[in-house]
Structures are given as structure tokens and as C-alpha cells.
């Protein structure tokens, strides 16, 4: 090796009979030495996916906005040349601790963590003080392109993103998530009826809604209004949802165990995310004045919520008898409910309703 080299304090380990090394690298070092081969190589000659640059600003903001408690997992990289490991002590107990020497002529290719690298680079440009902090790096000695590509495939083979509901459940920074959790746990309308971990509900699930659907609907209800605390926002949302639930008899039957959640979701549209979000938008209109006016909700009894009621729901929130999650379906459902209960439609809803009626007239 040459006289010019990097020296990384490391722990040496063995996987599949091959040595690897774990080190802590200063953040300022990450963009300087770790390469990403996207710009110069075609996909079959690269060792990782292309960089999704739209993710970088959000990830950088996450670091900058949470400098006292951000968390990044380790970066995995390959070294495309020989390395030398010198133990701190040659005694058997300590031979795993030492210094990893890497010739500066070698290259470091990221196998996993290219978006973290790019976000770190952007964050340091905005706040250089972050450069003294560290991130864990796992080094493998490269055995050629095919091995690096296989490493990328293996590292991502079992990587599964948590469901949106689970992410919201554990998110302590997102006020909308905090409010949604409070509504799910404290409201009479939803207590015990919200799936907190999964994004979808099985036919046998005892829950009526997912946490992600409730958070979205509650955010639509609250709109852009400002509250001093999440608890204050949740109290306002709970007051609306509890009043609304009084006018959806089937929800109460589930709560009283007189009907199962599966039967309700199978037979009625009002127990699906698209309608829940529409209810949120309806509530925002009813709460737009100085004082909320929920009296029009009594007119919800005029609506036939049955999925068999194709005249009202087909093409609006259903396609071929199946519920659709399209954003336009939320607008059309909101417009329909507002018309029935007698409140004014927004310009977007008027336009969507006109297009819907025009399309139906041509059939």
C-alpha cells in the first residue's frame, strides 16, 4: 500500500466466511469519499439504483429540523481494492478491534445508503457544524461488480417499509399523527374501531377504519387552522366525529356488537376511507364559521349508504361495484353529501359534479 491512506477505527467481523468492518465516520467525510456511480454508468454496470433526487430535500430537512434527535441507519459500502487491518492488541480477546487502512487510490462504492449520503451532503452545506457528527459505515472488500450488485439485491430483498398507519402511530414529530392518534383513542366514534398498524383491513378484521385513513380525514376537517396544542385540535375533531357518528346507525351497531365490522364494510360505503375523508371535508365546511353548526348532519338519514345503491355511488366512489380510492372520488363524495344535507359546494366540487353529471348523461 502507498504512504497515503485512510485509517478507520473499526471492528472486524465475519459473514459468509468473509471479513467485513464496521466504523464510525464523520459526516463531513461521507460526501468526500463515498462515490455514487449513477451519472457515468448504465444500469447493468452499476451497483445500485438511480438516485431519487426529489427525496433529498425532505431528508435533509429532517436532519436540520431535528438536530438533537435525528436517526440514520448505517451506510453499507464496498472498497474496490486491498485493505489492511491492524488489531489494537494481538491478544485473542481484542483482535477484532483495530484500524482499517485503505489506500487513497481505492474507491468506496455505496451499496446501500446513497440517499442518506446525498441528504447528509446537503444538510452539511446548510449547517457545517453537523460535519463533526458521525454515522455508522459497514465496509466490505469488493470482489467485483457482480458481487456488489448481488449485495445490493440481498440488502434490499427483505427490506419492507412499515405501513403508513404504523409509521403514524410511532411518529412523535408529526402533529397530524398526534391528533389522529388522540381521536382514535379518545373519541366515542372511533374508540376500539381503528386499526393502528395496518393500511388495509381484512374481511375478518374487527376494525372499521385504519389510522392512516382517520389521520387524513381529520387533517381535512381541521384544514389550515392553527391550534396551540395537538390536544386542542383533537378535542375539536372529537366533537365533530362524535356528532357525526350519531347519524351513522351502522357504526353504533358495530360498537354495540350487533353487527360485525366486516358486514358493515361489505354492505355500506360509509365505512371506507374515501367516505371518511369526504366526511372530514364536510365537517370543515360546517365548522367554517365562528361557531360550528352541525345541525345539517341530521339530513344524513336521507342518504342510502348501501353499496347496492349503484344509482348514487357507481361512478362516484365505485367502479364496477368496487370502492375506488381516487382523489376525485373524495371530491365527488363530498359534493354529493353536501347537496343532500343542504350546504354550499366549493368551486372544485361544483366543477367535479358538473363533469360527473355530464358524463352520466352521455351513457
UniProtKB/TrEMBL annotation:
Signal peptide: none annotated. InterPro entries: DGQHR-contain_dom, DNA_S_mod_DndB. This is DNA sulfur modification protein DndB. The lineage of its organism: Bacteria, Pseudomonadati, Pseudomonadota, Betaproteobacteria, Burkholderiales. It comes from Limnohabitans planktonicus II-D5. It comes from the Bacteria. CDD domains: dndB (cd16412).
